[in-house]
Amino acid sequence: MANTQGRIYRFGSPATLALYDSNNNLVVTGYVSPDMESYDLTHEADTEEVRNSSGEVVGHITYNNRLTLTVNFIPAGATSAEALKAMSLPDANGTCILTGAPAVQCGGYADALNAATGNRWIYSGGGSLKFTQTGKVTGTITLKRFTNLSASGAATSL
Predict the structure, then answer these.
(1) Which residues contact 12 (CB under 8 A, 6 or more apart)?
(2) To which H or E segment does residue 40 belong?
(3) CA distance 130 to 136
(4) What's the whole-number mean pLDDT along residues 136-143?
(5) CA distance 57 to 49
């Protein structure tokens, strides 16, 4: 654990990650979380400028308010088999519950990082695993949360 003299700084990337597939099944049962290496939180929205006949901006519209979280993790376990299981990723439209992170206010969320059961992070695919000849395996997933979309479990099949 880090400590400091003088000003106080945030240190580390504590959190627990539980990944669910699109049918609301835990991707890896009996396994709590990979080791979190880092995560990057971004607030985004789509925007449009309204211009008058002279081309001057007279209005600004925002919509599709959302948060994007890029999580970098190290698959690990007490055994080699558990470490292999930790490299599993959900299918597209899977969800994620993240807990244990600091409560950060961002994008209209009082606690932007931690996702409760009724407002999970959504995994839309694109995760990756990086294997190297001399180092540990690392993984990256990108998750999204939308202000007006409550992801609470299984996706609906159409």
Answers:
(1) 2
(2) strand 35-51
(3) 9
(4) 91
(5) 6
Q: Is residue 48 part of a domain?
A: yes
Tokens matching residue 3? 């400590």
**If you average pLDDT over residues 28-43, what whole number do you get?**
76
State which residues form the domain around 63: 28-146
Q: CA 124, CA 95: separation in Å to the nearest integer?
A: 9
pLDDT at residue 32, as a whole number:
55
Note whether residue 158 is domain-resident.
no
- Angstrom distances, CA of residue 117 to CA of 24, 45, 47: 11, 23, 29
Q: Is the Cβ–Cβ distance between 2 and 75 less than 8 Å?
A: no
More reliable by pLDDT, 88 or 42: 42
Strand 16-20 with 138-146, pairing = unpaired
C-alpha of 80 from chain center: 26
Residue 101 Cα to chain centre, angstroms: 11
* Closest among 81, 47, 52 to 64, alpha carbons compared: 47
Chain-centroid distance of CA 96 in Å reads 7
Q: What's the domain count of the chain?
A: 1
**Is residue 86 a contact partner of residue 31, using CB atoms and an 8 Å limit?**
yes
Q: In this structure, is residue 153 part of a structural domain?
A: no
Is residue 22 in a domain?
no
